[in-house]
Amino acid sequence: MRFSVRAFFPENRHWSAASWEFAILSVLIPNALYLVMMIYFCPIRNFQIGLLAMSVLLGTILGRWSFYFVMVFAMSLDALLVASSYFQMPVAMFFDATKFVSMLQVQHSAMYVIVFGAVIMCFFATNIVVQRAKRRRSEMSLYPFAFCVMLMVFADALANTTPQKMQEVISVAVEPFSAVDDTATTYADLEVVVTSSEQPNLLVVIVEGLGAFSNSASQEMVWGPLLGKKVSARYDLNTGNVLYSGSTSTAEIRELCNLFADYRDLRDIEHLDCLPNRAKEVGYKTAAFHAFTGEFFERVHWYPKIGFENIFFLENRAGLNPHVPISHCGTTFRGMCDADVARSVEAFLLSDSSDAKFAYWLTLNSHKPVGHHEVPDRLNCWNGGVFDDQELCRMAEHWLNISHLVSDIAMNPLLRDTEILLVGDHQPPLFTRHGRRQFQDERVAWLHLRPRNPSENHFDLATINATFFIQ
What we know:
This protein is α/β, with parallel strands linked by helices. The protein is 44% helix and 12% strand. The strands form three sheets. The protein has a seven-stranded mixed β-sheet, with helices on both faces. A two-stranded antiparallel ribbon has the order 1-4. The longest helix is centred in the N-terminal third of the chain and has 26 residues, at 110-135. The chain is elongated. Mean pLDDT is 88; it is low at 457-471.
């Protein structure tokens, strides 16, 4: 069969009903899910719109099964690229991270189940449009189709280009292991603290999904328990925000190593000059805590490389007594509850008074989609609370709960002098534009507590019985 491009663009058929039916439906249906998302928030999809258009066009000349293969590939790639942008992960990193999907419990999230079902429906509806177009090809011109594709690309660019997307594009060009000075650990002078003669404890907490609110009142609400008079009587307080790029593992390396990299860059490295390694070299005991599996993002492999002697994950119950029942929290990212991990962090800081401690805690439960009723209802989120956004409010309740947990650790009368730093990893990947507008572009918040009058805060901890395994 001879193929003629001119046959698809006859001037006398560009106003035909078949031409416009194909043009409109073949553009709208494959993109239907993302058009709905655009009402709230959707990453930019110019490339995917063009890819889907080419796939549909091929469907009018390919056999049915060949078209199925092409369309499944195009729609799968589209979904992966959208998810990559949505969760602010470089494309290569996201594709590498697909091997961790089996660790997630996607079926427990109604949102993900609905999205998957919608993609399947779009596939079958697109197939109906394409098969009908094949039968009416002699009645069609592709001028209307080309017009509708260009219109969709323009609308997508107009509605969905964001500062976060531009930052993602910039970050692709940054060389791994480039130095990063705009970090919370830098502003808190933790490198100086580690090498000081006093050697206070260090507690660094990276709070999952915490950005930097545009409204200072909202930020203060989340930090609330750490801003009270009792805490300020014992600690000096500093707050600020820093530039972020990438996802959580990039944030970890940003804060702990002052470098731009992610977990993939650490595979072939045996040792990295990071804050935990420097602390260990001057006598600190170091430990890292996370409520999810250590295999996710390969943390179990690279945490020791950056200096953590002890690592506590879901697999070892974060060091808690294996005979005492604990709860689990989260939906897709189902692991331990942050409140239980906080007990383990506190026990580590209180144990063995003769050594300074460096505790690093990566929180989990504010990861989307957040579970319901896992933390105290402090913000009345049933109607969106003060944020007028239920999803954001539920995440904020988790952030607020972390502040309460850290406040309890900070105010423990048996705690020796401890520098405490909390910092967000990346802006929360919210579904609504209204929610996203409540955060500063490309920034995450941090809060630093430095002990006041250190000489007054020393305790004889030899009699403290708190350990990991007797709680």
